[in-house]
Amino acid sequence: MAGTGMITMSMREVDRLKTIEAVVTGNLRAVTAARQLGLSRRQVDRLADRYRKDGASGLVSRKRGQVHHRLSADLTGMALSIIRDRYADFGPTLACEKLREVHGLFLGRETVRKLMTEAGLWIPRRLRSPTIYQPRNRRHCVGELVQIDGSDHRWFEERGPACTLLVYIDDATSRLMHLHFTPAESTFSYFEATRRYIELHGKPQAFYSDQYSVFRCNNKHATSGDGYTQFGRALYELNIESICANSSQAKGRVERANLTLQDRLVKELRLQGISTMEAANAWAPSFIADYNRRFAKPPRNDWDAHRPLRDGEDLERIFTWRELRKVSHVLTLQYDKVIYLLQDSKATRKLIGKYIEVYEYPDGRIELRADDTALPYVAYDRLPEVDQGAVVENKRLGHVLEVAQVMQAQRDSRRSGSRPSRANSGQGPIRLTAVEGKKAQRRIDEADLAQAIGKTIH
């Protein structure tokens, strides 16, 4: 066994030395030593062999004293010089990519990050000062800026299903301007609520919202459309500015109002015994009056910035879903899996190969317009329909209804995939979940279905 000599060892290496010495002298089993050191049995055997051959020096890390792979000063200096000149405001990842693609310098991303940090060109996120959101002064007049937001909550607790409350609050006074209960936050629900707001108060100068897809086109790579959402297009026609907040703190008035409503309004609905959206919408003006009496602030200026509707501003026509469709050579166009046949005339023949607008109203009505003129048409639904009633035995009626619900849900999903849902209508077929649909189908085999309905629905 070689002598230990003068060897500098870390505390971890000293502990390992004592354990391996015990193994070599027979005072400790190799299995127990492996468990203590967190190593495998083979590693302990190799360390014991190195100790017998080289003594304590055999247990010292062989990497000690070695020169690791280090970038040359010239390479790092060149990379840092390029970054200073051309990529000073780039992040480390992007700067690393540009060094590799443009300049042929292959450096690691963390290496570039370290160089930029030491040069003061990049501040790690953990060292950055937190963002401070300072309070914003209120607007001066009522109707100058109205904050809008949707709050999804169990407003009726267990008495009814969860729904969404659309909240309109004036920025100058924190006054509730309008409340509207709707099944979901959708374009058509905002159409209905905003139309009612304008009928009550007039047109505000601007609406202030979040970046939800109803208010803003969030797809940067969109290749169609004019950059407006359907709701944004409606506001543009009404000459109402649409502003999207960069953070939830920016529209804090409506966010804080939502918290208050989720407490007070829920309890008031319980005291009033209201459990439906229709009843809640009818009672909402009473709650708004009491809320504003308690929490509204006086404006700095008594002037009301709301504007009346101008001549020609038809709210029913403005608050519609619109899409362009091309007229075929046989005077047809397709929208939402339905073919529309235009009436053959000299005027409509001039539209062949041109695009006309399809107006869909919140109540489901479809209107085809060209040059602001409604065109007569006949609709032909491409989806399969049952053209005669099925003869069903009374004892099998329940099973047949379950099958009908499954098939209706499938047909409705095929149709609704190409257009937005009118979630605020409160109407529609009963929809089964995937699990419920599978259970219904398992309970009815093909023989029962053929006997109950008497035909196959294609």
UniProtKB/TrEMBL annotation:
PROSITE patterns: INTEGRASE (PS50994). Signal peptide: none annotated. This is Integrase. Residues 408-431 are annotated as: Disordered. PANTHER family: INTEGRASE PROTEIN (PTHR35004:SF7), TRANSPOSASE RV3428C-RELATED (PTHR35004). InterPro entries: Homeodomain-like_sf, Integrase_cat-core, ISNCY_transpos, RNaseH-like_sf, RNaseH_sf. GO terms for biological process: DNA integration. Residues 131-316 form the Integrase catalytic domain. One of its GO terms (molecular function) is nucleic acid binding. It comes from the Bacteria.
